[in-house]
Fold this sequence. Notes:
By secondary structure, the chain is of the alpha/beta class. The chain has 5 domains: 3-120, Response regulator (Rossmann fold, 3-Layer(aba) Sandwich); 136-286, no CATH class; 295-373, no CATH class; 391-485, Orthogonal Bundle (Helix Hairpins); 499-621, Tetratricopeptide repeat domain (Serine Threonine Protein Phosphatase 5, Tetratricopeptide repeat). It is built from 29 helices and 14 strands. This is Response regulator receiver protein.
Amino acid sequence: MPRILLAEGHPPTREFVARSLSDAGFEVLVADDPQRAYELYAARRPDAVVVGASIADGGTALAERLRATDPRVVLVAADQEHLGRARGLQAMLPLKANAYVADPTRRELVEKLQGLLSRASGAARPRSRGVAALLAREPSARGEVKPGVVARLLHQIWRSLSEGVLALEDGGAERRVFFLRGVPVACESDDPAESLVQWLFDGGRLDEAARQAALEAMAGGLSAGAALIAAGVLEPGEPLQATVRAHLKAAVVRVVAQKEGRWRFHAGAEFAPEVQPVELLPLQPILEGARAGIAAKHFADALRAVTDAYPVRSGDFQQVLPAAGLGSADLRLALGLDGRTRTREWLEARRGEMKDALSLLWFLSMVGAVAFHEAPEADDGYGRAPPRRRKPLPADRAEAVRQAALQILPGTYFHALGVDVAVDAAEAERAYQAVASRFHPDGFAEYDVGDLEDLLAAVQDKVTAAYRVLSNDERRRAYLSFLLLRFELTGVRRPGIDVDAEIALKRGERALAARRNAEAVQALRQAVERNAKEPEYAAMLGFAELFDPVLPRSERIAEARRQARRALSLAPDHPRATAVLALAEEQGGDAAEARRLVLAALKAHPGSELLKQVLHRLNRVG
Length: 622
């Protein structure tokens, strides 16, 4: 199915021509101004462009920009017969079009396009046809978009492990979500405002110059990700993957929130070679999208029949939980569904978070994670003990709990569990158990905690969320990449941070602290190999090699000097590199040079405790 971009400024003509081209078997992209047209061209790479004379400046600037990007672009100049007499071929010559059509509302436009595309088929830019062929087939299902419909579709696709494209029309634009084994892996939209580049621009992640650079690269044939890398906006690897994943999630959330239109599902995986898959938690966008686009009344109406029933987590709850990716607040709400409280009463107790509670119960019911029973769950034969009077929490303990909680809440997930970036799943679980038990309500069962209750719940939410992220390799790496990009974890670093290098650095530091020098040298060498432009890695490696018992003394000193000088070539006033070089000079017998190096560095970094310690050592030895 050939793809045509129609740039037309007159709304009735634009609508009529778009419909005519679509009826003729073309996939039509529509733009009403030159900038939007160029963005669509960059993002979707159409086979031909129809430029209407009623668009800004007669389309000359757009045509020049397209020609500069790709001299082979197929352009058709469409005159403005709808406003009276056509301007004529002479007036349209500046567009340097492949063909001229006086009246785009007539059959001539379709015939000209068919002829041009047929002649250009041998020399035109090659484009894979997997997606086009799939979308050209009759859909396996279709229907109208109404509140909750798309949410149920996504759940059905996930449950059945379906593969294909879900296309949704809304106000003339179309969005498409691609699925492999039931999981959303890619998206695209006819609206350039929803593209990855524009999404980053709207979010303040790139400026206008970077945006234009990325668009130019895309118009030249690069994918959006490659264009952003070429524009210097993103680093390849995990930073790019994390950004694309966040954009995909936002797109799926937008699809779920869509209020009207039509949908169709084209089954098949022929699109796979054309997309770079990025997997999401398949059910997570459903709840977020429902909350964003569906009124609370819809959830209430859907639950009306079970208001007197007793909701309880079903046997599928644990299966659904990883795919749903519930946040800590939602997880806390879900754990309160124990089958002993009526739906009406459970909701009444959560008036302050009514929409969240309603939407969560609706969502869990839809995905089969909650069942509704006519009678309450039994108490396992023990019954309920009468409530007992609690004593007040001692003031000193209350203050200690408050201060500890306030230390945890603002920090990173690593800080919340008290672990570092080299943590593995087993360590994360041990840390979670230790921290969670300190703040668990059961530990305060005999006390009236008063205003600390919300604080304790917030800490539980934080450490639970931290455990969910840090106990999973993929999520932990994505989170660490997120932190490193924002310089929140390691201080100021040079561009091009490598997550594996940072983890190797931390492993090396651990090994040094435990006096396992051979292990430290191996880990720090890995860090340097992965990112040779980071002075901290080279400085740490030099320090480890200086005290490596495996090497002879002369080789240890030479290696330490080499790594320290390497670090100083990257950052001339790096304190650790200077300290390592000074220690190497001292061990090589030149204590005076070592002292000179440290004193000079202290002038630039008077507050450096490391340099002060080295100077103290040199003075003591001297």
